[in-house]
Predict the structure.
Amino acid sequence: MSKTTITTLNGMKQRGEKIVTLTAYDASFARLAEQAGVDVLLVGDSLGMVVQGQESTLPVTVGDMVYHTANVARVCERAMILADMPFMSHGTPQQALDTAGRLMKEGGAHMVKIEGGAPQVETVRHLTERAVPVCAHLGLTPQSIRQLGGYRVQGRDAQAATRLIEDALALQQAGAQLLVLECIPSTLAAEVTGKLDIPVIGIGAGPDTDGQVLVLYDMLGISVNRIPGFAHDFLADTGSVPAALAAYVSAVREGCFPAAEHGFS
Ligand code: KIV
């Protein structure tokens, strides 16, 4: 079984093969997701909401992220493990380096994810010049929820769309090797995906990115939170967790999920 690396993902982008990503927070679900064929397991700070029952991702600590990343990494043999840098853990390049060091050394993460655009460029450069692989995250960035004022589609007006494209290019230039686009119009996501050399993973960003990610508990329909309209309950379709994971993997690979109705205009 060969390991999924950034080289694997770059090859998939070049060949037009969809990259299947799913969140995981513990060993049992991580193993099932890997067995179903998920390429990238994201230990997302969404764990604050779906596992801890918090109102937002803001209370999640570096310790929480290290703990859950280690639980996932311990049992995975093939999937790439991406771990979120939580709120207030990457305020300066040095703080970000300390956090990423813990996530990789203690947690076993293969790459770290940082929310934010232009203000994060210097931090991304600092990390990538020191052998820390980085995934950027643009669009709806849940750690900024108090500034955004709600979980809304981003990048709808021309100015915001232009800024998002510029940010994506600047983050790639700074060394980011992967990009997550969350809750933006499908046409904008397609444009960014076409402009970037690095793989782009969408969530609520329509069908034309290089891959998709969902929050595990949303695609099983078991979250304590409101399940977003761009998600789909694969457990309701299939009746068992392994079958739901397999259905998600093949729906993404075959380009059936997300469909147009899971995106925004
Ligand atoms: O924390 C998370 O699960 C995420 C995804 C929603 C992309 O960042």
The longest helix spans residues 158-173.
